[in-house]
Amino acid sequence: MKDRYSRQKMFKPIGEDGQVKLGKKHVLLIGCGALGSTNAENLVRAGIGKLTIIDRDYVELTNLQRQNLYVEQDCHEQLPKVIAAKNRLQAINSSVWIDAHVMDANYDTLRPVIEQQSIDLIIDATDNFDTRFLINDISHKHNIPWIMGSCVGSTGMSFTILPGETPCLQCLLDAMPVSGATCDSVGIIAPAVQMVTAFQSAEALKILVEDYEALRTTLVTFDLWNNYFQTIRVERAKKEQCPTCGKQPIYPHLQYENQTKSEVLCGRNTVQIRTGNEIPIDILATRLRKIGQVKMNPYLLSIDYESYRTVIFRDGRVLIHGTNCKDIAKKIYYQLIG
Amino acid sequence: MKDRYSRQKMFKPIGEDGQVKLGKKHVLLIGCGALGSTNAENLVRAGIGKLTIIDRDYVELTNLQRQNLYVEQDCHEQLPKVIAAKNRLQAINSSVWIDAHVMDANYDTLRPVIEQQSIDLIIDATDNFDTRFLINDISHKHNIPWIMGSCVGSTGMSFTILPGETPCLQCLLDAMPVSGATCDSVGIIAPAVQMVTAFQSAEALKILVEDYEALRTTLVTFDLWNNYFQTIRVERAKKEQCPTCGKQPIYPHLQYENQTKSEVLCGRNTVQIRTGNEIPIDILATRLRKIGQVKMNPYLLSIDYESYRTVIFRDGRVLIHGTNCKDIAKKIYYQLIG
Amino acid sequence: MIKILLFAQLQEEFGVKDIEINLMETTVSQLKEILKANFKFPSLDHCMVAINEEYAMDFDTVQSGDTVAFIPPVSGG
Amino acid sequence: MIKILLFAQLQEEFGVKDIEINLMETTVSQLKEILKANFKFPSLDHCMVAINEEYAMDFDTVQSGDTVAFIPPVSGG
Question: Where is the signal peptide (chains C, D) (predicted)?
């Protein structure tokens, strides 16, 4: 009874056996913002074996309203999120192996992480669809389940993707969404984050204790402020010709030409980001007008946001003026475009 | 933009005005275990004016699996939960006024807290129905909304009670449940806690920013492992003759004879607890057999649990042998009986 | 066919999480009696009952096609 | 009557959170056209659509009594 996991082992579908399994499992968590913080904390409190966390960002004051692992002191020290996270997580549970990487999650950086060790589950806690489609391809190529999660305002969604069984993200969304609403453009409340992580963490526990029967097969989406809740049956979305989970997969987002690329423009204090797609700047303009001064012409949109001037071209190029740092530029880019 | 609440103010139903309102509000949180931790953290991160927390317990190793505010060090120091909570909450947000009370929540102790200051909302994070019915009476007598929450295993429920509008707990449950399943007898997983707090905190934000239109009017209940979710319309449960919210309220749980009382039996290293009701010891026996050695005869049930021998009489008396401390005895009592 | 959803500890007591009963029409209290008679010791008396996500009383009618949820109060926190 | 639920940023774009439309039968793509014609600029094209909580395609039929949810992908995390 004095065991720290006793209340979890009393829960029948986990039990002693489940707890032993949990202790041997390795989870890869991509992103350590709002969804990442709570997912990480849940898994570490639950006693998994190893948690690998990847995030390129550092802790800022505006994070504290919803990102559970961080305190004011982490902001003052401008600690990278994964470092602040690791400090707190080890204080919570010193017996879990935490492997923290301050880095951008892209195929170049993720590949060694995936190929050099066995990973039982990937949890999506990113803030953009570029990375979600990358995770989706990696999941299917390496046969690792992943749990999608996203939130904005008082809304959120989650879906559990098992390679070879469920539809994948590509099946559900057809094309890369041109632009998803972001927490930085329309806001977010903490309960929406927690609702998504409640679903993600419950699904994670089911996968890690190997109770596949109990997995949710529906996509869940909700709006906490307006009291909406939908669980959507998605079996029919699965496509035989899907480039990721279909019969002849090509994993499009692992291919060089489809990856979002960034480069420092020498001597200009500017980073250029190139996406594979057109950007619908008129849709974007409506949203961005709320957070900064927007100027537009038929070819481009420019916005002053934080201390950067960002210029977004319809053809898919984005210039972030005011920095030579690719990670800062990517952060601004995903805050604006999502 | 550099404001710590910027992402919350961008959320339209809160906005600048809502944030100002939040900063003036005072919430009373009863209990600082699993539901209490997360509710407290959400409210403090959101920037309410003042949070009063009441809990009689100290941090133990078995709490760490789900109680978000606490770390291993708090266990080693055996800190009272509200003290450990306050330390963490002030590190999260130094500008919120935290008023922490290490005490049992009963009418004698709550009365001064309620009567000496204005309270905008009470949040239920208790682990027993005695205290919930007490909160229900206090809420109606003093016209303060409260948000019920409870969880066990992978299930939970929440309901928002507005005096004079919604049915109250007494309307919904008719009689005091003889015994609710407890986390200490059937276990609990952290995502179930977070799902309840997601609902509670979202409702709290609506009440505190005075967006009453947005309040959920249904009772929500779910089972995360089995993928159940129900939102139950309860308008018709409201009763005119309800002793708490009816036309002639008598607030039964504020009356001395109905309160659960405890007394130290001198020289016997025993505390006696007297409830107002009969206890169905046969129903209880099935559940308690899982966590300790149970003996039974037609009049009583005895169980060895933790380092105490507890004897439960059918007529509503309970003896906890092995302690002279009422708070320890009450804790054991609620862990067993709920 | 009436579909019955069991919440929380009822799942353990019944050994299943849902039940389908082939009945055209009954009342909540009759339904409780049927369940008590066919399953060993369920603590149904103190449950909340909802028919198609609406709070129900003992005398309410349950019809074929309805989903009835039995929700025992849980006290954990 | 077809009930339409709008999620996330669509609520702001439409200015309402749900809509009822008096139609006996239509398709998902026709419904999108109707909404686009009657409301200023909704970014419906990239939404997921569910009819009565089942994933739907553009050619699927929507009937009176159905609830249709338009769910734009949100990217926050």
Answer: none
Average pLDDT of span B311-337 = 89
**pLDDT tier, C41 (very low <50, low <70, confident <90, very high otherwise):** low
Torsion of CA B1, A318, A130, A267, to 10 degrees: -90
- Report d(CA C73, CA B127) in Å as an integer: 12
Q: Chain A within 8 Å of D74 (Cβ-Cβ)?
A: yes
Do residue A201 and residue B190 have CB atoms under 8 angstroms apart?
yes
Touching chains, B (3+ CB pairs < 8 A): A, C
A270-274 and A317-321 beta bridge pairing: antiparallel
ipTM computed for the complex:
0.90
- In angstroms, the CA D5 to CA D24 distance is 18
Residue in chain A nearest B48 by alpha carbon: A65
Chain B neighbours among A 271-300 (CB < 8 Å)? 290-291
pLDDT, average across residues C53-74: 94
As a whole-number percent, the residues of chain B with pLDDT over 70 amount to 98
CATH superfamily to which B260-337 belongs: TATA-Binding Protein (3.30.310.10)
Q: What is the pLDDT of residues A146-166, one digit of tens each?
A: 999 999 999 999 999 999 999
Highest-pLDDT range among B165-169, C29-33, D39-43: B165-169
Task: Give the minimum alpha-carbon distance from D67 to chain A in angstroms, rounded to a whole number.
Answer: 11
CATH homologous superfamily of D2-71 equals Beta-grasp domain (3.10.20.30)
Could you tell me the residue ranges of all domains in chain C?
2-71
CA nearest to A290 within chain B: B10
Let me know if domain A6-250 sits in CATH 3.80.30.20: no
| Cβ(B299)–Cβ(B314) below 8 Å | yes
Q: Do B127 and C48 touch (CB under 8 A)?
A: no
Whether B56 contacts B329, CB under 8 Å: no
Q: Write out the residue limits of the CATH 3.40.50.720 domain(s) in chain B.
A: 6-251
What DSSP state is assigned to residue B153? B
User: Has residue B176 got a pLDDT over 70?
Assistant: no
Interface contact C40, partner B, CB < 8 A: no
Residues of A in contact with B214 (CB under 8 A): 225-227
Looking at residue A180, its pLDDT comes to 67
Give the CATH H-level superfamily of domain B6-251.
Answer: NAD(P)-binding Rossmann-like Domain (3.40.50.720)
Instruction: Check CB contact of A232 with chain B, cutoff 8 Å.
Output: no
Q: How far apart are CA B14 and CA A208, in angstroms?
A: 38
